[in-house]
Amino acid sequence: MDESVVAVKNFTKVYGEFVAVDDISFEVQPGEIFGLLGPNGAGKTTTLECLEGLRKPDRGEMQIKGVDPQKEPGKLRNVIGVQLQTSGLPASMTVEESLNIFSAYHGVLPSNELFTRLGLDEKRKTQYHQLSTGQQRRLSLALAVSHNPGVIILDEPTAGLDVSSRTELHKMMQELKSQGTTLILATHDMAEAEKMTDRVAILLRGKIVATGSPRELTAKGTGMTKVSVRTENSILQVVENSFPAVTHKTINEDYCIYFSTDPGPTVSAILDHLERNDDSLIDLRVERPSLEERFLEITGTGGTE
Amino acid sequence: MTAFTNHFLFEFKSGIRNSSAMLMLYLLPLGFYAAMGLIMVQINPGFKELLIPAMIIFAIMSSMILGFPTGLVEARESGIYRSYKINGIPALSILIIPALSVGFHGLITSGIVAVTAVPFFDAAAPVNWLALLLVSLLVVFTFSTLGMLIGVVSSNSRAVVLLSQLIYLPSILLGGMMIPLSMIPEAFQKVSGFLPSTYAMQAFFAFAYQQETILEPWVCIAVLLTSGIMALVLSIYLFNWDSNNDTRRGSPLLGLLVLLPYVAAILYSTYL
Description:
The structure holds two protein chains of two kinds.
Chain A: E1 6-15, E2 18-28, E3 33-37, H1 44-51, E4 59-64, H2 73-79, E5 80-83, H3 95-106, H4 112-117, H5 133-145, E6 151-155, H6 163-178, E7 182-187, H7 190-196, E8 199-204, E9 207-212, H8 214-219, E10 225-231, H9 235-238, E11 246-252, E12 255-260, H10 263-276, E13 281-287, H11 291-300
Parallel strand pairs in A: 3-7, 3-8, 5-6, 6-7
Antiparallel strand pairs in A: 1-2, 1-4, 8-9, 10-12, 10-13, 11-12
Chain B: H1 2-17, H2 19-43, H3 48-77, H4 80-86, H5 91-121, H6 129-153, H7 157-174, H8 186-192, H9 196-208, H10 217-238, H11 260-271
């Protein structure tokens, strides 16, 4: 707990009768990208908003770099940078003005390098409402990092972005991580979480139902590896056969898909079988279970494992 | 100081860049002023006496009571305050800097009215120009803080329109801007007592034009000043960062306390 950058202990938030977050605890280590995952209404944004000092927890403790968001809001602003899920700037504020104003309030000089790094150099004089969604997100990130905070909170940072903007943002996140910045990422996007995060916590109905690295979480699931095979003569589809470690099989268009607990022996046996039956391989894919599948598994069972 | 300067410059420029702000700050008041100067003065030559103070108050009211609170609520509703809060912009800056900026625009419009009304429309010139400026500054202060309070207590844009119109239209009709207070029926003069424009018009006549007034001049100054201070204090106290996050320190109804100086002035003029 002492070494953690972010520490949340027994945090609860209630809106009237509705318990939005129910007694959750987690820690984030220095330089880590920590993901908060969960379906809509799981409590991700509420948790982040309490960490950001925008809402007040009903119970529990929170600290970011030793700062209590409720008791020391002034200190908190210099410790964290935040890219909100729904935030805006005045429509007529230019990119340059926003960076100048926000940097001045943080007591730092505006960084020209940030404009360049985030591809906003040519947009300095452009007003906020004239920016594309991707440019608005990049500006929001620029403002979040303008004062070099130790912790950056990103709430659905890539929602609504095109592929190249997402890639740019991911690159920026990796750069920040490599500089020792701690990032907390709330996202719906499991592929993004799997690619970007070191550890995740899955929230469901206000409770943390699973934590660990994406690899650990997927390993804890049913552990089924998908072996998809397409062959010239489709022999696998017409002849019933059994292969080692396969629990069940499905057919999807030209592919036979085997769910295997141990893909090595399964693939060897399939290749032998094809050779013996004069069939030839067109495509073979071995896919480990994804975080998305694991997420659906967890959320589909209501979080009971 | 850099933060204040940068923020103020942005707010000031946005009054010109933003078309709806431009409408409230310049086009509406100056258009109305031109119409009054061209038409009303012809119909009623006595209106020449009212033209400068009435149009200054109209310009200030349009920007402070119609434009300013709408901007505050729209900014809150669109999450701009949340962005400001997480980036360390204090609540005081969010309220004071736009008020100063709108006030500055209001003074520019007032200046245009004051300088052009005599040569263009043969309006009655003030006897004391310094007093005109000082009363204008006080009127800007009072209306800007009232506008601030309307923006702070209004839960949405519709509420802003409703509350703004509660001051705006009666001020034009009963606040001595179109018809001198002495000509308003006595029953309606009680309503006039709740309108800041009544005290502003009387203060202009007493100090800038050095004329006899129905209300005591220093009472008018006291009402404008105390209601302005109360509106400012209540705005800061009741300020809410977020429409969806009710962290307000008190009920918006506390905003009604701003009426106390007006009630006191009515009682004073009735019984003393």
